[in-house]
Amino acid sequence: MKNDTKRLDSYLRRAREFWNEQELVPAGSSIIIALSGGKDSVCLLRLLAAERETLSLKLFACHVHHGLRKSADAELEFCRKLCEKFDVGFYEFRVDAASRAAEFSVGVEEAGRQLRYECFEKLKNSLGADLVATAHTASDNTETVVMNLVRGGSLRGLSGIPPKRGYIVRPVLCFDSAEIKDILSLFGQDHVTDESNLTGFFRRNRVRSSLIPLMKEENPALDRVVFDNSLNIREETELLEVFLRRSLKGAVSADLMSCDREELKTVCRDLDSDEPARFWIRIASQALGTPFPDSERQRSLAAACLTSGAGRVLQLSDGAVLKIGQKTLRFMKSVSSPSFCVKIPEGKTSLPFSGALVTRSGIKNGVNYKNINKMLMIMKINPDTIKGEVCARNRLPGDSIVINSMHKSAKKLVCDLKLDPALRDAWPVFCDEDGVIWIPGVGLSDRARPVSERFFELIFDLPPLSGLPSQTTAPSVPSKGE
């Protein structure tokens, strides 16, 4: 019994050290535990409950019933009683994973994962909780790394499951499956078994039941080795990304989807590597919400960015494209003219696709309104002639503007600006309910000109490509395997 106590204390100490090292469970946190009733999530609950008083934690549990198996009702009741026993607030969600899978043409496993994270986020917002803790283990991490290796991936893929992503934390990631079982045994804690984990139906389960055991015959400590390597690769990858962000500062737009082509060429030439181009392709595709191209495709896209002639359009997945201009490279959602319409209230408004920023002032009185055409990117507008809302939108067939009593085609006027091909289709026109009132760089409609010292100002700013953030914003729903 004394040896059991020492062993449990050792596990608890390892957990605390991991939490502190990765800053996973700050004192005073309110944490939602993703509780399925399986051994991993039950172990997670017991470890957090054991440290609750010491760390002043507030604990809640979220159980998602996927509507897939008859045993799901019993699993829900098991989780409810477990939470009652350890005074953990219990919340349940019922979802239809099969219907989601059919509606979005994804696998049932993927549909269930999406729905779970939606429920976690909904409950987090409802309770005002700080963190959502999921029960990924070192064994899950091994499976993820192996799957990424088999299907091909970047260093980020080989770094496995991150201990923390936004508000999602993985406090038992430092323990493998055998250690989880041992901890539950030391707690004297039972759990439920998901029978889908015992079949070879899902790809991950096939890797778990067939491939991983063969690898462990070569190295029984596989999970520990892969976990340690994953942390090392993640640290080195993050350092590399910091370096690449600094090297690309001034070349990449704030929305990450545009890149100054000459600046990119210079950085790649100075480093004698196309990695900066491939790095921009990865972060731009993430910002656009399209899957990362595989390594081979990244290399071909990088080569096109650095050497192809202007006007080339490269098709990516999910309808995304990379448009190559003389000076600008641009990720967009479709080959055709981008569709957007953005209301322009007072203050600053970002426009999609072009990366432009529009600033609208309040109405000014008694200020000189003359010489309004000296700078075609700053325009004074007569508020008394505006019908409805002022909006910035993409150019439409038939758009025209009246300047100096002459009707002029918006398409021809924009073409005459000789914009870079990667930006031409995204160049906005400003409109009210009666039509176009201003085209930046072209001019203001006669009807929108001020006739007195009463006007509001619109400033169109297409800044130099800069503002690459220190890190990209993670999606609220982690990628597969995370």
Fold blueprint:
Elements lengths: L1 H21 L7 E5 L4 H12 L1 H4 L2 E8 L6 H14 L3 E6 L2 H8 L3 H20 L3 E3 L4 H14 L3 H4 L5 E2 L2 E2 L7 H11 L15 H16 L3 H27 L9 E3 H11 L3 H14 L6 H13 L5 E3 L5 E4 L3 E5 L8 E3 L3 E4 L6 E4 L3 E2 L12 E4 L9 E3 L6 E4 L2 E4 H7 L4 H4 L4 E4 L2 E5 L3 E2 L9 E8 L21
Parallel strand pairs: 1-2, 1-4, 2-3, 4-6
Antiparallel strand pairs: 5-6, 7-10, 8-9, 9-10, 11-16, 12-13, 13-22, 14-22, 15-22, 16-19, 17-18, 19-20, 20-21
Helix pairs in contact: 2-9, 5-6, 7-10, 7-11, 11-13, 13-14
Brief overview, please?
With 482 residues, this protein is α+β, with helices and mostly antiparallel strands. It is built from 16 helices and 22 strands. It has helices at residues 2-22, 39-50, 52-55, 72-85, 97-104, 108-127, 138-151, 155-158, 177-187, 203-218, 222-248, 261-271, 275-288, 295-307, 410-416, 421-424, and strands at 30-34, 58-65, 89-94, 131-133, 164-165, 168-169, 258-260, 313-315, 321-324, 328-332, 341-343, 347-350, 357-360, 364-365, 378-381, 391-393, 400-403, 406-409, 429-432, 435-439, 443-444, 454-461.
